[in-house]
Description:
Layout: E1 3-11, E2 14-21, H1 27-31, E3 34-36, E4 43-44, H2 45-48, E5 60-64, E6 67-69, H3 82-97, H4 113-142, H5 145-152, H6 154-169, H7 175-205, H8 213-240, H9 243-246, H10 250-285, H11 297-315, H12 317-336, E7 350-353, H13 363-378, E8 383-391, E9 405-411, H14 423-433, E10 443-444, H15 446-455, E11 462-468, H16 471-486, E12 491-496, E13 500-509, H17 511-516, H18 521-533, E14 535-542, E15 545-551, H19 561-565, E16 568-570, E17 576-578, E18 583-591, E19 595-597, E20 600-609, H20 614-628, E21 636-641, H21 642-670
Antiparallel strand pairs: 1-2, 3-4, 5-6, 5-8, 7-9, 7-10, 8-9, 11-20, 11-21, 12-20, 13-18, 14-15, 16-17, 19-20
Helix pairs in contact: 4-5, 4-7, 5-7, 5-10, 6-7, 6-10, 7-8, 7-10, 8-10, 8-21
Amino acid sequence: NNNVGGNVVEQAGTWAVVRGVGLIESIADVENVVIGAPNGVPLYVRNVAEVKLGNAFRTGALDKNGKEAVGGVVIARYGVNTLEVIDAVKQKIADLQSGLPQGARLVPFYDRTQLINRATGTLKRALIEELLLVTLAHIIFLFHFRSILIVTIPLPLAVLISFLFMKYMGISSNLMSLAGIAIAIGVLVDAGIVVTENAFRFLEKNNVDPKDRARVWQTVLESTTLVGRPVFFSMAIIILAFIPVFALTGQEGKLFHPLAFTKTFAMAAATIIAVTLVPVLCTFLLGGKFHSEQSNPVMRFLQALYRPALGFALNHRAVTISVAALLFAGALVLATGIGKEFMPPLNEGDLMYMPVTDPAISIDEALKITSKQDAILKSFPEVEWAVGKSGRAETSTDPAPVNMNETIVHLKAPEQWRLGMTREKLIAEMDEKLRMPGVTNIWTQPIINRIDMLTTGIRSQVGIKVFGNDLKALEETSRRIAEVVKTVPGAVDVYPEQISGAPYVDIKINRTAAARYGIDVGMIQDTIEKGIGETNLSVTIEGRRRFPVRVRYAPQFRDGPQALGQIPISSSTGAPIPLAQLAEIRTVEGPTMISSENGLLRGTVLLNVRGRDVGSFVDQAKEAIARQVQLPTGYYVSWSGQYENQQRARQRLMIVIPIVLVVIFGLLYIT
């Protein structure tokens, strides 16, 4: 099955290349391959085998709304702009549509565009609203139009400078980077207000004539010098307060670093503007009639409320300090009871349903279950479509076993849901309808699931890892832990990963019997590997594509131990010997998968937490496991998933926060 070259021959003064064309081009070519000629009669492949087009061993399948489909996944490179990649993929899909066979369409079943646009749109709207509210507050409290311009102009400038730094640092305009600016907006004008207010009061107190520009300039300089130092240090302290965020690592660092950077950029820009541009604006714009605080009705009202309260506090200092101390002590007590979460949950808009079935299930049976589940999900009026995957694709990036399904449930807009329906109620209804014997339901979301899988290897909120040296002991211990955890309030979707239960057909070769017939053990192993299994003998080339030519025993010769026992093995005399006479063939139970970590075997219990925080749940679950589960000698348990991330971030913050507090106290002392 190949072409060969025979150099060249000369014809009429020219060279012609000699080729031997022997590539297989059709099924008939394979059928007519001669494998022998007993008694001079050619024996063809078609005489001993059926040649047909087939498919590779299938390890995965895709379903949409209860009907089988074909799908693919686009993976973006690290560091690229997700929205730009999605737009480019959509354009490429549109280009490919015209070349598809009749009736075939390319339809995206998971698209983050809506989530990204919805999140950034909400944040941009919030930014505009904040700008308007800050401006309105200036109008109400300053009661001086030119002063309003002075403190409002630096606001968009600080934001624009932040965007310049974002461009320089390679930070994209995303949810977290915009959130940093949104958080800072309320503080960006503080320094400008202090400088402007002080200049305003200096001019008012000293009865400076706005037309006397030299006097105005000197007064503004004096007022700015007076407050410049405290303004600078106060803003520096606010910036320092975000240093712990920069100390975060892992996914929490990647998530919150853009927020901390943009907030720092905006604060630094606002501080510099407050001590440079704002005084200059004051010299130009602080003119006209100055209104005292008493002429502002809002300020009069607030002072009327504040003066009595301040007077009471000063006249009853012991009571004031005692109340403050009690409030502080009460806050400390309440702080110990606050729930602990790694990060607030993000509503991605879509759901991911990840049921787990029998580890011995075949791909055809898994597809039937997935199709039934997707049809049930599609029946909900809140669901646009449900696309489920059973098993895995032929790629190293998707190591899912056949018994693990992944269904992305695309939900309609909330305004199209049934009256009174919430996300939690919808999940509960779906979970109830999807209950099947032998199926464990697990609910999560597409993005957080991928993050959890990449960072901790756990596809649920919390994972309990059991380490030891024996698979059976690991499985039994994991089951006992799962039973205990189920009793802890808040535990849902509890599932101990099955370590054993997969059926194996063991063919144990009898070396003595094989030697009696003069049969080498390697010959028997080759028959098992190439005949019962399958092997690639060659390839066919069709245009730009290559397809393997495989050989395997027909199903009737390999379906079950009894059929396997009848497979003939050639002895040294050429006589066929049944495999059953050369080996013991039996069905046994073996491991479905073997997981290891840090040199030890590992079992895992997966679970999610609903109705309470993860931190307090894990604390209670640890106590329950310690009381009710006796671990074998040499075995130990560790907690993973989001709890692992939470502990890592907590330990780092416990070191960084005290250091930052010491630095802040130092700055306060210097100030």
